[in-house]
Specification:
six-stranded parallel β-sheet; disordered N terminus; globular; single chain; about 250 residues
């Protein structure tokens, strides 16, 4: 259960977007402000993810996509990268243990081959064992980059053309979407970036063509249900024209 009941939230009368994506940013700055190591910030950020994922479920959000580790994050110190991977492993072990209770479908976007064999196995196990659950899907963007995803999709299509299974003339936007990590998942209506930064940072470049962005001046470990309510309220105040005139 989430921390708040539906009657407590500011967005009570507003249905949530079907698909919300979040750039979980600000863990390092949160730790620095408190004189703690960056790994402590990532641990606090993991707790924030649990809190928000639970709250999204109480609101009826169908898809939640989170930017857990980017293709650029390997540039960080070995200690920090190791800490993030350890937290992810602990979370997946916990999720597998509690899978029957939580009934969440887990999907991973990104090139998992760069991860340790143990972590790759946990990801595959989580995806396979959770396929039976359809109420909520959590997509982890892990070793993920929007440009890398597009290149990956182009290569997949090119290989099929080379084998004679496709022709270049068949390719359109709908077909190409099937070659992305997010195949079969509707594009996010709302993308949230906490921390005060106002960049998309190579996140869901194809899928965010018509997403509404909400940038918020709160570090991810401090991001709570009321912040999500505010983001949803902002979403509902937007006039979504999709290139048309209204």
């Amino acid at each position: 259960m989430g921390l708040f009941s539906k009657k407590d939230r500011a967005a009570e009368q507003l249905p949530p977007p079907q698909h919300i994506a979040i750039i979980m940013d600000g863990n390092g700055r949160w730790a620095k402000k408190r004189g703690l190591p960056r790994t402590a910030g990532h641990a606090a950020g993991a707790e924030s993810f649990r809190r928000i994922a639970n709250y999204c479920r109480t609101l009826g959000v169908r898809y939640l996509t989170v930017y857990a580790f980017s293709t650029e994050n390997w540039k960080r110190s070995q200690e920090e990268v190791g800490g993030i991977m350890t937290l992810l492993q602990r979370y997946l072990e916990e999720a597998l243990r509690d899978m029957e209770k939580n009934k969440v479908h887990f999907v991973f976007f990104g090139d998992l081959t760069k991860l340790s064999p143990e972590l790759q196995e946990l990801c595959r196990d989580a995806e396979e064992r959770s396929r039976q659950y359809h109420e909520v899907q959590v997509n982890f963007c892990l070793n993920y980059g929007g440009r890398d995803e597009i290149v990956h999709g182009v290569r997949r299509f090119a290989r099929e053309v080379a084998r004679g299974e496709r022709t270049p003339e068949e390719l359109d936007e709908n077909l190409f979407s099937q070659y992305l990590y997010s195949a079969g998942v509707p594009d996010p209506e709302l993308i949230i970036r906490p921390s005060g930064e106002q960049r998309i940072s190579n996140f869901l470049l194809w899928q965010s063509a018509y997403s509404e962005y909400v940038f918020m001046d709160v570090l991810w470990p401090d991001f709570g249900p009321r912040d999500l309510d505010e983001a949803i309220s902002q979403f509902h105040r937007r006039n979504r024209r999709f290139g048309g005139a209204k």
